[in-house]
Amino acid sequence: MSEENKAPEETVKPEEPAKTETQSEAPKAEAKPEAPKADAAPEAPKAEATPEAKPAAPKPAAAAKPAAEKAPEPEKEPDPRLIEAQQRLETIKGKIATKFGDAAIEEADVKKITPTLVIKPEYWVDTVEYVKTDPSLLFFYPEAMAGTDYKDKGYIEVFTLLHSFELDYDIALKVRGARDNGSVPSITPIFSGFNWEEREIYDLLGLRFEGHPDLRRIMLEEEWQGHPLRKDYVVMD
Amino acid sequence: MEMFTWLDKPMSGMTFLNMALGAVIVLGFILGVVTYTIYFERKVIGWMQWRIGPNRVGPLGLFQTIADVLKLLIKEDIVPAKADRTMFLIAPIIAFFPSFMVLAVIPFSATHIFTAASNVGVIYYIALSALTIIGVVLGGWASNNKYALIGGMRSAAQMISYEVPLAMSLLAVVLMSGSMNLVEIVEAQKNFPYVWYIVPQFFGFIIFIISATAELNRTPFDLPEAESELVAGYFTEYSGFRFAFYMLAEYVYVFAMSALATTMYFGGWEGPFLPGWLWFAIKVSAFIFFFFWVRATMPRIRTDQLLSFSWKVLIPLALLNLVATAVVMTLV
Amino acid sequence: MAIRTEELLMNIGPQHPSTHGVLRVVVKVDGEIIVDAEPVVGYLHRGTEKLAEDLQYTQIIPYTDRLDYLASMINNHAIVGAVEKAMDLEVPERAEHLRVIVAELQRIASHLVFFGTYLLDLGAMSPFLYVFAEREKIIDLFNRLCGARLTFNYMRVGGVKWDTPEGWVEEAKQFVQHLKKQMDMYHELVTGNEIFLNRVKGIGKFDTETAINFAMSGINLRSTGFNWDLRKNKPYSIYDRFDFDVVVGENGDCYDRYMCHLKEIEQSLRIVEQALDQIPEGPVMGKVPKILRVPAGEYYSAVEGARGELGVYIVSEGKDKPYRLKFRRPSFVNLQLLPKLLVGQSMSNLIAILGAVDIVLGEVDA
After folding, report:
1. Is A172's Cβ below 8 Å from some Cβ in C?
2. What local confidence, expressed as pLDDT, does residue A55 receive?
3. How many domains would you assign to chain B?
4. What spans are recorded as compositionally biased (Basic and acidic residues) (chain A) (predicted)?
5. What are phi and psi of C40, to 5 degrees?
6. Does residue B58 sit within a domain?
7. How many structural domains are present in chain A?
8. Which residues of C touch A32 (CB under 8 A)?
């Protein structure tokens, strides 16, 4: 196992070695059953390693939370994960609002424990670019993308999950496009990994992505009528 | 025995009949050998791969190949609509013919019965075996299939490249024995210093065996029919008995090449105690086994690596070997 | 003098021995050099996500078996894990251990198949049969556990369906010891082979930045030297209790991906060994409501699949069926990089590169 946890060029910082070390130490600590506590140790230095622009101050307190999502005590009153997620959401919301104004954010919420922001289509590409490149955020790992048809609300929602290796958590960014002939800007030029995902959403939900380099159906043939994942899709015999 | 000494007789009705009879017997014999070579291959590789191999048709699966060949023979002869029909039909025959003809010069035993003790045996073998390439390229081209075409092209490139070191390594043996007659080469290995040519020509033998594997299109040089890349290579479009012809040609060559190696480097039928033909059979079987063994062990080499290996490594080494042999022969 | 040459358009697949299913790659070749390549997918699209919208959560589990059919157990784990996280359900200790054991055995089986088929792609036939003999032993273990050999449908929300039969744990332990010894043989047979090394070293190389930008995960990402394994980085189930290393490569070429697979088998064996030693007695199903109703909301959770991050995104309206279920299929995502890797390579390298990206078409097409 190599100790190298090298992030792409732009993120390599002097703090990097410290982070790498905690990473490689974690496995040994986790051998014991009381891993949750042991895991908290690597968590704390990591929080300090993050750029100070981020409100790192409240983090050490929250760091006591086990990294394990399956916390043994889900009943305990204020779920520390939830509080943490709330703080993260506020941070990101604040950053985006300062950069693009409040108008850019349609909704902001914590879904389960993931900070989730709905961005207006006009600001979509810029926002994604911003969270990817801003040195205090660096959400540059495109984890997942999914489209959902909200028939009653009249829009199709695109969910993207981005991960920051620097901050070590996920955020979900969303954008909504109209159901009828709707379109949203494509972020494939920013994240090549969303190329096929966007094609799949176009194929199965019928939401167009403006600026996509190669927007064609991917799963179904070109002549296919309709978009199967829409709620009002009628299965043909 | 009078009847079998037709080799140096003038051509008459009787000698012609004898020749025809000899050819048929050799043909039948080879078909039997090939049938059981294929069976042997499947069994041996099966054992090497923790499985049983053919065991259903006949006792121990002994009739498996016969059943396979019969199946191939009665299958429909499919010619793709877009194929070049004439060429498509001729190609397997062109590939198949020379494979049998080369057997004419192989000395199976000390009493040379059906085969020819030709004075140009080595050249004859090399020249005829090269003809097969035409059948392969033609088959690939005429199929009008891209995989087949690439397979055919690869095959041509490969066989031409490896023919050169093969011939050069054989020439070193010719230099040592002073004859191109395969019988005389075997005889020469009986004389002083009483060793088979594998010993003085060990280097040449290595070159020979590598080139021979490539020439036979066998793993690790089975690129022309690289299944994982080209589906089946040049015979992708062939089925039925035309496919069987390609397969037969391939296995006849395995036998012929093993026989050639035995003759050139391992003293042919020479050996103590046992009769000559048995020695020959043992040695040839060992070679055939070697080819199977390699097949079960090695991955496939890449085209460009294959060609550069031939031109940059094997041919210079073969040349060196040839020159060294010549120098030594002059001095001694 | 320039010779006029023509580019050849070739369809590799959908019926081709080395596309591992019904993948089609349209390549333009100039001689044997690829000038353009485009993967065409969708031949195996069954609409799993659409089907799931009409199924109760338990009913979805067998459908996940058919995604990455070489790693059904891990797919099971992904869906039940996602539902459990969404509902904050507790899973009994024994069930958690069993899950880890079967998931890691499945990972081993899957990597073994990679090893075999990859070598088969490269023209070596024997390893394929060797690993299938080993895999057979794992499949037999699973067979005794749940009665199926490929699509296991073993896990349930809140636990696992069956407890171990008599002597199963002992057998599994024996198998772990057996495979540990076998691994050396595989290295001896293949890893040192000059021909093999010549075909995989430096081929299909990409760097971490590309891999991350292309959302790659699993071994494809780790082979570039980037340490990212969900079992460590976002521990789920009880993976944080086991001692194992994350295997990372150096150069991100086919050789590294091959080595990562083999080394990961060794690490998985370590996990299985520990889990088998620690497995407690007790129930294998937790207390779960008869009808599972995921509270309204959106949930994403992921497990480290055999091929990368296998995520499940659930949108629920509080009913017993998901409003929308999306699988983040690692094979599908990883395949995007293929055209970039192929341009300028030869036909033989196509097979080597495609094989090392390690896709399963059931997962690509969902």
Report:
1. yes
2. 40
3. 1
4. 1-19, 27-37, 67-81
5. -115, 120
6. no
7. 1
8. 241
Of B89, B48, B108, nearest to B295 by C-alpha is: B48
In a domain, residue B20? The reply is: no
CA atoms within 13 Å, Cβ hemisphere of C154: 33
Residue with token string 């309206």: C317
Range of the domain at B296: 74-331
pLDDT digits (tens, 9 = 90+) for B272-322: 777 777 888 888 889 889 988 888 888 888 878 888 888 898 899 999 988
Query: How far, in Å, CA of B99 to CA of B255, rounded?
Result: 10
Torsion of CA C278, C282, C283, C284, to 10 degrees: 10
Is C302 close to A31, i.e. CB distance below 8 A? no
Q: How far apart are CA B130 and CA B156, in angstroms?
A: 10
Beta-carbon pairs below 8 A across chains B and C? 84
Question: Per the domain annotation, does A187 fall within a domain?
Answer: no
How far apart (Å, rounded) are the C-alpha atoms in residues C56 and C33?
50
Print the domain residue range for A150: 80-180
* Phi, psi for residue A74 in degrees, rounded to 5: -75, -15
- Residue A160: give its domain's CATH number: 3.30.460.80
What's the full length of chain A, in residues? 237
Evaluate the omega torsion of the peptide bond into residue C14 and state whether it is cis, within 30 degrees of 0. yes
Task: Say yes or no: C227 contacts chain A, CB-CB below 8 A.
Answer: yes
Backbone angles phi, psi at B327, to 5 degrees: -65, -45
Q: Is the pTM of this model over 0.80?
A: yes
Do B and A touch, 3+ Cβ pairs within 8 Å? The answer is: no
- Tell which CATH architecture fits domain C56-364: Orthogonal Bundle (1.10)
Predicted ipTM > 0.90: no
